[in-house]
């Protein structure tokens, strides 16, 4: 158990719909990252937040948006869903301890768009 | 952003040592090299991180030559449970500019 929680675990929806994925980082971690992983593909970095502010942006579509709230949990909003958005979405939080920078990944949300 | 190149797949047998090499020719001065392990339908898990020379922990060793343009993850005496995808990651210690490589799918055979 990494300490990062994600809800829901599974999500099935239809094309054109909008969904919200939720992530709670480990206690005390200020950074939250979102990744997308399509079937048998590598991890695609979407976006990073640090203490409520956007810090880095990756290959995130304009139909997707995210935010980090004052309590540090984060939400990833996916709208106008397409079949190709079906994937595993991971959230991670990070810490630097003992000179080691490490990301802790949540269990993921599996999104299926029909 | 440093781009990494890894073998797509590797096969090994139980009890053997496995070495997976990652190329990162454009690594920046303040970049670290990190390796993650991922099992199907699970989030990646940190294995080891290093900046230069050799780093060893309870599960793996990481070898980084002086020019830092490549790194080798060494897994001693692998078991069936080490079958997974291994990612090489290069980025700075502020957590920015981290780019996951394509990953190496390791299959450990009995």
Summarize the structure in short.
Chain A is mainly β and 114 residues long. In chain A, 0% of the residues lie in helices and 56% in strands.
Written account of the structure:
The complex is a heterodimer of chains A (114) and B (110). Chain A has strands spanning 5-7, 10-13, 19-24, 31-37, 44-50, 53-57, 64-68, 74-78, 87-97, 100-105, 109-113. With 114 residues, chain A is mainly β. In chain A, β5 (44-50) and β6 (53-57) form a beta hairpin. The termini of chain A are far apart. The relative contact order of chain A is 0.33. The model of chain A has no long low-confidence stretch (mean pLDDT 93). Chain B is an all-beta fold and 110 residues long. In chain B, β8 and β9 form a beta hairpin. Chain B is globular. Chains A and B meet through β4, β5, β9 and β10 of A and β3, β4 and β9 of B.
Notable traits:
A: 114 residues, 11 strands, B: 110 residues, mainly beta, 4-stranded antiparallel sheet
């Amino acid at each position: 158990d990494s300490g990062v929680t994600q809800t829901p675990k599974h999500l099935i929806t239809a094309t054109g719909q909008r969904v919200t994925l939720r992530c709670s980082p480990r206690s005390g971690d200020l950074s939250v990252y979102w990744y997308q992983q399509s079937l048998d593909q590598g991890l695609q970095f979407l976006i990073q937040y640090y203490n409520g502010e956007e810090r880095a942006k990756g290959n995130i579509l304009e139909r997707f948006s995210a935010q980090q709230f004052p309590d540090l949990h984060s939400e990833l909003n996916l709208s106008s869903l397409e079949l190709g958005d079906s994937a595993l979405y991971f959230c991670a939080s990070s810490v630097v301890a003992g000179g080691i920078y490490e990301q802790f990944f949540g269990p993921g949300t599996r999104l299926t768009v029909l | 952003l440093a781009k990494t190149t890894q073998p797509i797949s590797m096969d090994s047998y139980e009890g053997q040592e496995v070495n997976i090499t990652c190329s990162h020719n454009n690594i920046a001065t303040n970049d670290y090299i990190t390796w993650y392990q991922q099992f199907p339908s699970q989030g990646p898990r940190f294995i080891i991180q290093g900046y230069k020379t050799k780093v060893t922990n309870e599960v793996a060793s990481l070898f980084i030559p002086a020019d830092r343009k490549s790194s080798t993850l060494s897994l001693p005496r692998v078991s069936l449970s080490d079958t997974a995808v291994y990612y090489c990651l290069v980025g700075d210690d502020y957590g920015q500019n981290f780019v996951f490589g394509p990953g190496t799918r390791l299959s450990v055979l009995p």
